[in-house]
Amino acid sequence: MAASSGPSVVDLEHSRYFLTEWMPPLLQQTAEQSPPRVLADLGAGDGGTLFPLDRAGLVGEVIYAVDISEMHVTWCQALTPKVRGIVSDVAHVDELADESVDAVVSSQVIEHLPDDRALAPEIARILRPGGWFYVSSVIRGPHAFWMYKGKPPAPERWQLDPTHMREYESEEQFRSVLEHPELRFDVVRASQLKAPLTDLVFRVGALAHVIKRERLPELYLNLPGWVTRARRATGVPIPGYRWVEATGVKATADRAG
After folding, report:
1. Which residues constitute the domain of residue 20?
2. Domain for residue 80, yes or no?
């Protein structure tokens, strides 16, 4: 049986992302330097990563939205006609041929996998030589805490997400699970992880049934621009947590070995 690539369907409504046109600067810089014709988003979720890439005109023709949840895939397909949905474990995407995509993104997914070392070989398999990848996750410091209690088989502790199978201890540990003979790193870096105050307000509103939970992902798209700008400016540092990102390329034949 293939390993699950993320939260079970019963958890999805409690872990939905907000759709905005903002994307991590490192991802934007990487995509702008080499806009892909074909992109694979491994663990696409609600489309929070592929959506801003498409809105910025940084994907040419096709976006493969890969997720273990059929519901998530359906949501992604509604965002842009470029999306082709694939319901699959992200570590074994049989529908994608070897060297079939120009870029791979996988944001906040690897920490959910039962075997985090299974992601890099799949990235290397589907990525064409010279193509780029972007993977992000979280680093948990020794005194980190947040408001969610882990649910078995995840660690039973207070952590960033109840479905995280792990939270990395350092940039070096994160990098080590992505090492692969065919993948070369360009950047691995971490920064303070923050929770936007506006997101917290909207989630509380959903819990209080003031806002419909199904409206959360697209909420920012229908609000004035100053609200979206406020989201980026009012982040509250999450104690002990950092956001970690890695970018790199698949080695070409002349650089192999």
Report:
1. 9-140+165-192+240-250
2. yes
